[in-house]
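Thread: Newbie trying to understand structure tokens

Hi all, I'm a second-year student working on a class project, and my supervisor (Dr. K.) asked me to get a predicted structure for one chain before our next meeting. I've only ever worked with sequences, so writing a 3D structure as a token string is new to me. If someone could post the tokens and maybe explain what I'm looking at, I'd be very grateful. Here's the chain:
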Amino acid sequence: MSSSLPFELLRPIVEHVNEKNSLVSLTQVSPSFQVEAERALYRSVILHYNDMGLISALSSPKRALLVQECSLYLAPGSKGKAPSTTTSIPPAFLVLSKMKNLKSLTIRGNLPSKPIQFPFSLDTFCTTEAMSKTLVSFLRTQPSITRLTLLSSPLPTTPVPPPKVVASMLPNAHSLATLTPQAALPLIPSKPVSHVHILAWAKSHMSDVAPVMASSSGPMRALMCAQGFELTPTDMGLLAMHIPTLTFLGDVVLTEDISAYTPALSRMPNLKTILVSRQSATLKESSSPSSPLSSRAVERNTLATLGRACRSLEKVAFTQMCSAPYVWERSSRKETTDEWVIKKVDEPTEVAGSLWKRS
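---
Reply by user tm_fold:
Sure, no problem. This is what the structure looks like when written as tokens:
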């Protein structure tokens, strides 16, 4: 059965099909539909170590060229262990070596210790492997990476000194996400890193972190930490001194009254968005039954203080675990308590990441 539709209409039709099973069915309609359906079907793939059916399908050079995004899950137990010394290369990695158009790669497990020449130039890379010689070697072959995520455990089972990060590595990386600040810091100096996302602050010291972040050639614009990002007025002062280029800051837990932070905030002329955790001292006290002010009134008072201290500020969100049902947006430059208006968000759990990316 041949398709009677013009070829230029096939792709828009197929692009509207989201179900994998439906795309598989379309491959049987006609040769023309098969070409477009396979293009959509193999654009983004998830490979498991034992998924030999998909691995075999992608062994076809024609299909492998269609893959632009790949997530690779290796055998259970490989995550967090030292790289294997075996000379054999897992079939999934052999398939990767055929994906010349791959732009985004996620690997849950370890890279093979035996060097592989990959033909692709990645834009995005995510891995659970700790910084090792193998990983450094791989990153050196991928200078095109702009977004890097390292999700290795901060407490390896076999402590070993991390390999030295080569200065020429990651020349185009502008977005960096890691579990702890310690994992991010070696990758920042002289790199164009502008966005840093830390999953856990882990009692890090701002006096150690801020100067290193200032060494980015970015310049540094956005700093977000999902857990335990407690800032004292002194910490905020260090940020203002070392990274006055910040346009986004969150999800901060202010340990003292908001007024104690105004001197530092007044020295952050580029700050446009700040996410303040509801675990902050001022907001936490307002939730007490004995508090004479409502939560909304405390928010408005906090906004007024923030707005007077930081005239560049445009958006403020009061968060619970990086989630917020609405964002306060500045509607004017007048120093009044009602210069801020509420903007509800469609996805409360994604507000932090969305604002971080857009900053």
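A couple of things are worth pointing out once you decode it. The two ends are 51 Å apart (CA to CA). The chain has 14 helices and 14 strands. Feel free to ask follow-ups in this thread.
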